[in-house]
Amino acid sequence: MNGDFIPRALIISSTRFIALSLPLCDMIMLGHQGNEYVKNFSVAAQLNQVFVILSIMLSIGINIVMGKSKYQEREKYIQGILRYSIYLAICLFIISLITAPIVHHNIEILKTYLILSISIFPLCISICFSNILETIKLEKKVLLITLYSAVANLLLNYIFIKLINDSTIAVATSTCLIRLFILLPMIHLFLKQKIKLSPKKVEGLNQEILILGRSSAVTSLCFTGGLSLLVIYISNNMKTEYSSFFGLTLNFMNTISVIFVGMAISLTISLTKNHHNVKAVTISYLKQAMLYILTFSFLFYFISPLLPYLYLGHADQLLTQYFILSMGVIAFDGIAQAFISTLRVYGMSQIPPLFRLSLIFIGIPLSFIFSIDENPIANIIKFMMLGNLLASLFCVLYFVKNFPHMKKETTIEQ
């Protein structure tokens, strides 16, 4: 009954990991160009990440909507979801332009940010397409498309770095083009399935998807926005090495965390489609999810000392320390995401995502009040870990409290 959960989680996680390896490759290539390029790109990319995360979170309800729709209504819902994603893309693009003055003090950062803002539009559409294709059992095709895009990104990065004097702008341009080109093979997949990609209004659909994702979106806005302000603060008040290394560490955390995001998406799909022995199956899925998180956490813990070679081309004990500490941050967030995804399927979509704000409103502020490490960046990461530990604990307690009353309904918590 639940044998497809982990295989699907691995495929979706691999897809998300490869997709996030695009900025990983960007940071690696910039790391070989110099710390100043890494610093500039980190600030622009982290601010742009606010809109990337919003596009993901405000699309999170697509899996649930598609999962509970009848086969005969599939095309209608896909057309409605496409309409929703176009509106979402336009809104996020406009807001990203409005926030551009935040980085007006540095012209290189501003140019990079504006190029990345343009890429938000195709990104929203591709996220929508990915969610739909994964729900209709075409996740392997999505993985293959993402793999090809990663290879193309490497080639474009190399070409543009050679052609454009500013490596930061070169990499941003490459990212923008890749996010646009990836739409073509996805559209081809839909056409092969004989699905018309004409936006169509489906009564109540936009509201349903927004309600399913709004709490996660607010959480992510505070979450990513808080990290963006932290990156800007470190960039302006600490030496370049600290700013550069913290940017690399955040990039590492963003990249690895998608492995747990993929697990959460697969968990959502599996729970939505399950209609038998609900409570027993839910516990079984959660046990598998915890084992999944534990396995990958130990895997990346052991290979962390090798990662500085990728980013810098040589060993670095300080960066290794940051990477090892960051695995704790990611693991606790993965636990929180597993329980949030489960609770969302059973109608509790509003309160649980807010627990993740513990990192922003408890962890990071405490790092400026207390010092448990002489290194300021290590101190911040340790308190980020504390924030996510609290978030995961709150999610588990909320689940335990509500578990006896859970019913297999995809109702929406008001």
UniProtKB/TrEMBL annotation:
What GO CC terms are in its UniProt record?
plasma membrane
**Spans traversing the lipid bilayer:** 9-31, 43-65, 86-107, 113-133, 142-161, 167-191, 211-234, 246-269, 289-310, 322-342, 354-372, 378-400
> Is the keyword Secreted assigned to this protein?
no
Transmembrane helix: is it a keyword of this entry? yes
Keyword entries, A-Z: Membrane, Transmembrane, Transmembrane helix, Transport
InterPro entries according to UniProt: MATE_fam, MATE_MdtK
Q: Which residues form the signal peptide?
A: none
State the Gene Ontology terms under molecular function. Answer: antiporter activity; xenobiotic transmembrane transporter activity
Q: Return the PANTHER family for the record.
A: FMN_FAD EXPORTER YEEO-RELATED (PTHR43298:SF2), MULTIDRUG RESISTANCE PROTEIN NORM-RELATED (PTHR43298)
This one is known as Uncharacterized protein
Source organism of this protein record: Xenorhabdus beddingii
